[in-house]
């Protein structure tokens, strides 16, 4: 059983994850639905967001994570080929922001496939695809024929709610560089780090353009993508955080529930979807993807990508501009403010 389940998880095939049994109803679970911005605010406002029982669960999650020893056989996978997605959900992100990791999490928790518009053979057309990756409006390298039609032209076939995944640009830019470097050198994805000399050359040649593109993607999806609505802004840093990640992962899966023909996961007791047992199971699945599987692919850093003083100052400026331009879109603001504060602290500490 364990080896079969492992193969199913790694393949991301059309299987449905049921943490115990399928839910007969999702109404109670939706009644406790949490938005991503609430998840981000957990640290400062737990008492206002959750019941006292959930508060105690959340506070103990970090300690339990290090103690939890789970295997994939703890989670049952039920095959049901009759399931189909009514409308796939867009996942928009700047390159290097962790979209592949998020797609692996979604495939593991829903049993459905994810795809990308750059896959010319499928182009997110299959009925088993629950999430579709895009870097629109950026047209960065590759075969132009793979970009496909703009998302707005595809609106009738896609869910109106979209996900935007963001990562601090100081980390997203070198991650994108490494992806391109690995392609150029024909090495496995996420296996090596490009040389520091090549990174410095790439950074100095492309920094201003890439930074503007990072901001542009957020602005376009927030303000120019009618009839789409940005339902969730996901910070990569929260997704990989061992305290916030499992809860955020659960929230994402709950939202995707509405796009499929029947419940895609469940709990022993749906009325207690946030009890200790449920949290432990979500944590277990999160660990398998983020801490174990991803670790096997993660690059070993031989150096920390650096920036000139002018570039650090530009990072702060771009983040402030993004906050100003998205002032009417509060989902983005806490994340952007955090990035700006972090950059300012680094600048002060190194001055």
In short:
This protein is of the alpha/beta class.
Descriptive key words:
two-stranded antiparallel ribbon; 351 residues; alpha/beta
User: Helix count, per DSSP?
Assistant: 13
Reported for the largest beta sheet, the result is: 5 strands, parallel
Fraction in beta strands: 5-15%
- H/E series: HEHHHHEEHEEEHHEHHHHH
Query: How many β-strand runs?
Result: 7
Give the CA-based shape: globular
What do you see in this structure?
By secondary structure, the protein is α/β, with parallel strands linked by helices. It has a domain at 2-168 and 227-304. 49% of the residues lie in helices and 10% in strands. The protein is built from 13 helices and seven strands. The chain has helices at residues 2-11, 27-31, 36-40, 42-49, 52-67, 99-110, 169-185, 196-223, 236-239, 245-256, 276-297, 309-325, 333-349; strands spanning 16-18, 76-78, 89-93, 113-116, 129-134, 161-166, 229-235. Strands 4-5-3-6-7 form a five-stranded parallel β-sheet, sandwiched between helices. A two-stranded antiparallel ribbon has the order 1-2. Helix 7 (169-185) packs across helix 8 (196-223) and helix 8 packs parallel to helix 12 (309-325). The longest helix is centred in the middle third of the chain and has 28 residues, at 196-223. The termini are far apart. Residues 1-68, 72-81 and 266-274 have low confidence and may be disordered.
């Amino acid at each position: 059983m364990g080896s079969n389940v492992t193969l199913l998880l790694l393949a991301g095939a059309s299987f449905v994850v049921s943490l115990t049994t399928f839910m007969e109803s999702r109404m109670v679970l939706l009644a406790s639905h949490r938005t991503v911005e609430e998840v981000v605010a957990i640290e400062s406002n737990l008492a206002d967001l959750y019941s006292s029982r959930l508060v105690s669960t959340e506070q103990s999650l970090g300690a339990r994570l290090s103690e939890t020893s789970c295997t994939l056989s703890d989670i049952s996978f039920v095959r049901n080929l009759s399931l189909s997605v009514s409308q796939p959900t867009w996942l928009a992100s700047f390159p290097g922001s962790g979209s592949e990791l998020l797609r692996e999490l979604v495939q593991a928790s829903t049993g459905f496939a994810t795809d990308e518009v750059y896959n010319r053979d499928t182009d997110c057309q299959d009925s088993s695809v629950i999430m579709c990756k895009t870097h629109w409006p950026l047209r960065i390298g590759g075969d132009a024929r793979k970009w496909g039609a703009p998302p707005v032209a595809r609106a009738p076939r896609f869910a109106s709610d979209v996900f935007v995944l963001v990562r601090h640009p100081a980390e997203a830019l070198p991650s994108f560089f490494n992806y391109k470097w690995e392609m150029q050198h024909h090495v496995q994805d996420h296996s090596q780090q490009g040389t520091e000399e090549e990174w410095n050359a790439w950074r100095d040649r492309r920094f201003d353009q890439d930074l503007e593109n990072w901001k542009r993607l957020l602005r376009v999806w927030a303000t120019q993508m009618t009839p789409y609505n940005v339902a969730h802004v996901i910070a990569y840093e929260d997704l990989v955080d061992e305290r916030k990640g499992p809860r955020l992962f659960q929230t994402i899966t709950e939202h995707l529930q509405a796009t499929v023909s029947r419940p895609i996961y469940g709990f022993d007791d749906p009325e207690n979807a946030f009890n200790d047992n449920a949290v432990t199971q979500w944590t277990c699945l999160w660990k398998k993807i983020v801490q174990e599987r991803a670790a096997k692919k993660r690059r070993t850093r031989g150096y920390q990508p650096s920036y000139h003083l002018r570039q650090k100052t530009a990072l702060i400026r771009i983040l402030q501009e993004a906050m100003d331009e998205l002032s009417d879109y509060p989902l983005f603001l806490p994340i952007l403010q955090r990035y700006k504060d972090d950059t300012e602290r680094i600048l002060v500490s190194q001055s």
